[in-house]
Amino acid sequence: MRRSYQYRKLERHSRKPAQLLLVPMIDIFTVLVTFLLMTAVFSRTVILQLNLPPPQVEFKEPPPGLQLEVMVRKDELLVADRNSGPLHAVPNTAEGYNYDGLVEYLKFVKTKFPEKTEASILLEPDTAYDTLVQVMDHVRVFEAGEGVNTVQAELFPDISIGDAPAPGTAPNAPAASGSPAAPGGPGSPPLAAAPAAGAPVSVMVAFLLVYSTEVEIIQNTKGIEIPQSIAQTSPKHSVVVMVTRNDLFVQGEFITTVADIKASPGALVEPLRAALKRPLLVGQEITERDIAQREITIMADKGLPYEVLKRVMATCTDADYGRISLAVIQKEKPVTAGQYKPV
What we know:
Layout: H1 2-14, H2 23-39, E1 68-72, E2 76-81, E3 85-91, H3 99-112, E4 118-123, H4 129-140, E5 141-144, E6 151-154, E7 158-163, E8 202-208, H5 213-221, E9 228-229, E10 239-243, E11 247-250, E12 253-257, H6 258-263, H7 270-276, H8 279-282, H9 288-293, E13 295-300, H10 306-318, E14 323-330
Parallel strand pairs: 1-4, 4-7, 8-14, 9-14, 10-13, 13-14
Antiparallel strand pairs: 1-2, 2-3, 5-6, 10-11, 11-12
Helix pairs in contact: 3-4, 7-10
């Protein structure tokens, strides 16, 4: 018995520790994972795009016999009828003028007057030339589509320009003291619609190609930054009046300074008028029919105030130029992904 006990004791001391075998467990998990992968149903969560209707904006119905005017104020764009007064105000956003809101109302007006093409843009004296160009763009046409598929739809392409009446004054208020209103002043017809020697004046927006070497040289050497536009009318050969930040040129010849224009009295720029009346530019005696066809292009810096631009335009009209074009640079159309096809 004692021997047997000693033997068992010796056997206990010499026994090796037991080992945990994980291989069978790994085999089981492998089979389970394979089974789950084969029998599982995978689902992908997607979204369904929901476009909520825009908030209903009650647009004021334009009256019959509408004479459309768009007034450019510091804090808003005001659409009005020359006879009945304001129709719709478009307040500024944090980014500036709300051109999209202006277009929405003008599209509403166009549905009521589909045959109407005339509109007047009335500006305050310190309105920048670039603002005038942008407002003209959005009054003339609106763009639909994206990238290279963008198309332009017509709104009111026949634009006239004039002075905005003082805030709180009726658009068609008569001039003070019962005297006739000064050209371009409150109560007068828009400046660009005023007749010159019996010929109507139209404002047409032309553009210069953005890659034009001549434009790049002008901007680098003459201190001028030309505004961009969606206009598509190519410029024609004509007399060019260029107004930089500081100076005015005719066909590249220095005429006067912007400071002198602001300081001089009267509605016209006399040095410019004298230059445009030169025989070299005028040539032989012209008739009223010729005046209506004579075109002049104004190339101005985007920051030029309207009070200077107005006097330049009035001088061109007085010098027997019946068509005024504003030179701008055509905006490049963005190309969306997948639309570019290399040639």
